[in-house]
Amino acid sequence: MEWSRNVLALGASALGAALLLSGTVSWAQDAESDKLDTIVDERSDANEDAAAVQKEIDKLSDETGDLLEQYRTALKQIDAISVYNGQMRSLIASQEAEMASLGDQVDRVEVVGRSVTPLMLRMIAALEQFVKLDVPFLIEERTERVAELDKTMNRADVSTAEKFRQIMEAYQIENEFGRTIEAYRGTLQVEGKEITVDFLRFGRIALVYQSLDESQTGTWNKDTKSWDPLDSSYRSAIRNGLRIARKQAAPDLIRLPLPAATRGEG
Asked: Residues 88-142: pLDDT tens digits?
């Protein structure tokens, strides 16, 4: 009996020890598991923090790259502006010199204008007298041109240079009349009646007319300053001359009623 109690006691002790050991192991495992979970959580938190830090680093790197690119762009713009400013300074200097030159020219033009104006007035007067004494072709047109020159001379909004240009243009037109042929239609007093006729001008050598029905022809007499009738032998020649002047026929020789040369002419 005593032995049995000892065995039971030993078994109980062993069982208690085993249970104690089991509890200890279980507690140790739980503690280890908790520690591992803590480490994993800490590691995870660390990874998340590292990722956040890396993300911030990447962001700062991108911003730094953008700032560097902006800096380089700004340097290029500064260089371009420096070159532009240099060019503008040269341009402004050139313009200031040009303005000074123009101012000097304006002063001289005013002096020249005061001396040119009397000359222009004399040229207009001479042109007016020339038209009155010349062969009376396009008389209204030519007289009106001279009258316009007189009006222009009294206009303050027209420069002296433009006035002189218009006078020279009028002289040029009159000069061209001397080497061209022309046909135009107008009215004429013939035997006290006003009739419509075709005028034919050969430079300033001859000015003839022919009625529309070709029944009347005549020529301007420079000596008598009047119209002389022509016989029917000129009718065909004048008709052909009108067609040539209007470019309706090819140029050809034409029989003209020219005044006979007087002694001393040649």
From this structure: 788 788 878 887 877 766 666 666 667 789 999 999 999 999 999 999 999 999 9
> pLDDT tens across 201-232, in order?
999 999 999 999 999 999 999 889 999 999 98
Which residues, at least 6 apart from 194, have a Cβ–Cβ distance to it below 8 Å?
Answer: 187, 188
**CA 66 to chain CA centroid, nearest Å:** 42
Residue 105 domain-assigned (yes or no): no
How far is the C-alpha of 14 from the C-alpha of 258, rounded, in Å? Answer: 168
At 69, list the tokens.
């690119």
Q: Which helix (H) or strand (E) holds 26?
A: helix 2-133
Count: domains in the chain: 1
Gyration radius of the chain's alpha carbons = 59
User: Could you tell me if residue 192 is inside a domain?
Assistant: yes
How far is Cα 220 from Cα 217, in angstroms, rounded to an integer? 11
The pTM of the whole model exceeds 0.90: no
238 located within any domain: yes
CB contact at 8 A, 238 and 208: yes
Distances (CA, A) of 266 to 224, 254, 258, 262, 263: 20, 22, 14, 9, 8
Place of tokens 């730094």: 64
Among 202, 261, 262, which residue's Cα sits nearest to residue 234?
202
Write the single-letter amino acid at 35.
K
Segments forming the whole domain that contains residue 202: 181-258
Q: Where are the alpha helices (DSSP H) in 134-232?
A: 139-153, 160-177
Per the domain annotation, does 93 fall within a domain?
Answer: no
